[in-house]
Amino acid sequence: MTLDTVIPARVLVTKIGLDGHDRGSRIVAAYLRDAGMEVIYTDPWQKLEAVVALALQEDVDVIGISSLATDHLLVPKLMKALDEAGLGHIRVIVGGIVPAEEEADLLKAGVSRVFHPGSGREEIVEAVAKLAVDAADDRTDD
Amino acid sequence: MKQATPEMPALARRLINGETAALARAISVVERDTPQAIEILRAIRPHLGQAIVVGFTGPPGAGKSTLVNAYVAELRRRGKTVGIVAVDPSSPITGGAVLGDRIRMAEHTLDEGVFIRSLASRGALGGLSASAAQVADLMDAADRDVVILETVGTGQSEVEMATIADVRVVIAAPGLGDDVQAIKAGILEIADVLVVNKADQPLASQTRRQLNAMLGLRATAEHPVPVLSTDAINRVGVADLADAVTVVADRRDRQTDRSALAGRTRHLLAQAVSKAAEAHVMNSRSEKVEDILHAVQDARLGLTDAAKQILGGILGYNANEQ
Ligand code: B12
Ligand SMILES: Nc1nc2c(ncn2[C@@H]2O[C@H](COP(=O)(O)OP(=O)(O)OP(=O)(O)O)[C@@H](O)[C@H]2O)c(=O)[nH]1
Ligand SMILES: [Mg+2]
């Protein structure tokens, strides 16, 4: 007799900078929860160091940053901080209002994907589930 | 300083040496219940028993997370390092969860002396997750002075927390439905310290009176259970809470309670057996199980007898033999 323990993906859904639009991040957190994932949800206005500490302590597979203003411009800095903390395996996605040229910069900085207003539940869930598997495959310490 | 021996699993060694990332990772491994998990748990055994494990339980919205946040601030003022295991319910249907306890503890996110881990209950009853005890052990081995468990707010008898925690804090609050009714029978019995939180609310003193009256009916207690008042938001009464926890913990230390440890292991084992048996019945298509299933369906066999037959089949002995 075997006991198969399937562990749900763990995802941090958060917001950085000064932007307080949190409807998108709340909805996305609910999408992911309803798809069977474990979501660590925070208030907006997180510092980058806080996002790194949260991701480390909670051992998440994916970080989702919601940005309706300009705070996604901080994400390349976040990518660097994650790398320095030994968390390079974590996949980072951004959702919200991101102009095309800024999206290109984010992808260049290592962001896995950018979601725009109107993104559907299925599209989001499917992408996060796949990225969580990729992140788990890339772990180096066990 | 603790010494890690070289033949240990690397993760265990790094954890004992105080590396935060290793603690975070080891918790995930233990949650997965893999063979590596057992190696880590074995390796840390000599390093256990340093931490005081304090459980916080009480009905939903009583202010457990807010009070834990204030209590942790007090512990930090007293120079203690802290690990927090915060359990929130998984959806019984999808298995998913939004883990929100730590939102109320955000002021400690950047403090290296505080490590917070959110766990989903993953179907476990009793307010904790199946691996919560082991996660608490990992934090103990990682040199946390105080390990705090926040249960899912059920307000029902939190037997599990009772077996894991050294000190059990039960939190009530005014204005939660029928006041003290929210604290169900069974939960008062496990309390070492009772707290009426939201002392700033008008009905708090009434709640306190009701609790005292209920405690008065329980004359059996060896040590009287203190009933404290706190306002977790304004941090009133929190130092008294910390003192009360210390008093209980000191009492426990002197007992060095071996039988309690064995009791806890027995409880964890019982849980694991029922989980394994459930998986067996749900997934097995063996003839034997199907026969028993049909016998129950046709009312030829009672549920209890059927369960004993199935357990007998799995374990290869007669479950009637105690
Ligand atoms: C509702 C709203 C508000 C509400 C916010 C309520 C709240 N708690 O969220 C209120 C009225 C408070 C508000 C205030 C302001 N707002 Co406003 N607001 C909007 C509005 C109309 C809709 C946003 C919304 O909730 N959409 C619904 C959600 C569900 O969609 P969403 O966030 O886009 O999320 C979807 C996707 O983007 C994606 N997604 C989003 N996040 C994530 C994260 C992950 C991980 C993933 C996978 C996907 C994902 O998936 C979601 C589902 O499809 C937008 C205009 C617009 N059309 O977007 C302006 C808008 C965002 N606001 C704007 C502005 C300027 C402001 C104010 C500065 C106005 C002011 N001068 O006071 C303030 C600032 C508030 C603050 N503190 O930051 C501007 C921003 C301009 C910019 N990008 O440069 C916008 C674009 C309006 C505009 N055209 O000018 N606002
Ligand atoms: N007035 C008042 N409100 C409080 C106090 N403590 C907590 N609250 C509020 O009560 C609500 C619930 O607090 P939490 O700390 O999330 O309660 P909880 O018991 O952890 O809730 P669950 O984990 O969901 O069961 C929040 O809105 C808090 O701000 C207090 O002492 N006084
Ligand atoms: Mg809580």
Automatic annotation (TrEMBL), chain A:
PANTHER family listed in its UniProt record: METHYLMALONYL-COA MUTASE, LARGE SUBUNIT (PTHR48101:SF1), METHYLMALONYL-COA MUTASE, MITOCHONDRIAL-RELATED (PTHR48101)
Q: Sorted alphabetically, which keywords does the UniProt record give?
A: Cobalamin, Cobalt, Isomerase, Metal-binding
This protein's cofactor list reads: adenosylcob(III)alamin
Q: Which InterPro entries match?
A: Acid_CoA_mut_C, Cobalamin-bd, Cobalamin-bd_sf
Could you list the residue ranges that cross the membrane?
none
Q: Which organism is it from?
A: Ruegeria aquimaris
Q: Would the keyword Cell membrane be found if you checked this record's keyword annotation?
A: no
- According to UniProt, the name of this protein is Cobalamin-dependent protein
Q: Which residues form the B12-binding domain?
A: 8-139
Automatic annotation (TrEMBL), chain B:
List, alphabetically, the SUPFAM superfamilies matched.
P-loop containing nucleoside triphosphate hydrolases (SSF52540)
Q: Write the protein's name.
A: Methylmalonyl Co-A mutase-associated GTPase MeaB
Q: Which NCBIfam families match?
A: lao
Q: Pfam families from the xrefs?
A: MeaB
The record's annotation in InterPro entries points to: AAA+_ATPase, GTPase/Isobutyryl-CoA_mutase, GTPase_ArgK, P-loop_NTPase
Which SMART domains has this protein been placed in?
AAA
Q: Which organism is it from?
A: Ruegeria aquimaris
| Gene3D superfamilies noted in UniProt | P-loop containing nucleotide triphosphate hydrolases
Which PANTHER family is this protein grouped with?
LAO_AO TRANSPORT SYSTEM ATPASE, LYSINE/ARGININE/ORNITHINE TRANSPORT SYSTEM KINASE
